Amino acid sequence: KYRIKKQISVIIASLLLVTMLGTPVVAETEQATEQIQEQTTEQTDEQLPIPEERQLPLLVDDADLLTDSEEEELETQLDEISERQQLDVAVVTVNSLDGKTAEAYADDFYDYNGYGYGDDNSGILLLISMEDRDWHMTTCGFGITAFTDAGMDYMQEQFVSYLSDGEYMEAFQKYATLCDDFITQADTGEPYDSNNMPHEPL
Asked: Could you tell me if 175 and 151 are in contact, meaning their C-beta atoms sit under 8 angstroms apart?
């Protein structure tokens, strides 16, 4: 199963990151989730099989940045957008990248956990790593069309300030809303890009 992918990675300025990250937290995860993610992060010379169907929810908060009620609310929002737009919109938080770059970790997490809608595995995934002070957005399928480099630059300008203030729920909800609007715009045949950006913040 071959996936065409495009990524954009941004390392947030040190001052912003110190404010954003605070003290690393140790998150508890269910055993089944841990087993799947061990496959994602394991360094091996043999390529792992890519599952045909998604193995994990659209929200995986292993860094425990959200309360239980916030997780439920955000997952409902991500599920609704993804089903309506026919494109997976995912958020993943982790404590560590386990020695990988944010780009490699996000790509592997997306692929080896079966994210993506339809035959072209359309989707976008936002990865936040607390310990490594890094984040990354990866896209696939129609997500490559909907989220151009310029478009994702615009998006990160809209939600990173919430991360810097520790307002994680607000940041992720803003990301989800932006994704919804960007997909809708791309469906018109004119996705947001450097010469076609929103006039007002979405």
From this structure: no
